Hints:
single chain; Thrombin, subunit H; 2 domains; 6-stranded antiparallel β-barrel; 4 helices; globular
Amino acid sequence: MASVVDIHIVPLSDHGTAKTNADPRRMSKQSAGSGIIIASDGLILTNEHVVRDAAKVSVALSDGSRHQVTDVAVHPKLDLAVLRIDRHNLLALGVVGPPVEPGATVAAIGGASFLEDGAVRDGIVTHTRVSLQHALDPRRTRLYNGLIETTARIEPGFSGGALIDSHGKLVGINVAVSGDPDSKQYRGYAIPCRAPIRQAIAELVDQIRNP
């Protein structure tokens, strides 16, 4: 899907500087996630944890071009970030998706570079208001409540990518997994595009456009 992109970072070292002595290809592979184009003028939604502690962030589009991120706005509590690249006329996914219900067919989509056999994983919604607070962040520095749980495999690198419904509408932002990938208990989780999340995203967009 052209609206889902790869995100690569050059991480900060322990001294707060970019790790310039490592292989950039290896660093990108270890430090990458996915993002969702949400506005045609270069605005991209992802998880805050994908770009946390980054010295530099770049985005690889489906056409193979790569662009440096010029602005970043983050909401650490909700694990959301909006990035801007200097590119226009992009194919965007709207954030206002329909509510999703248990039993609905969905697909988890990550950046195209992560899987040789395609970066789409189908599944069904099993629950719509799951809490991973204790498992992921018992100190509540972030909020991981009300997540969508699905049997769609959210692969490594899919964080920040799209969870879409059978009509191609965005219903969530991939954020976590649980269980053994080879077992029937494996589950993927996504931040739902409910009203509070949409409002937080709108505020991040406003920070980018009106600094």
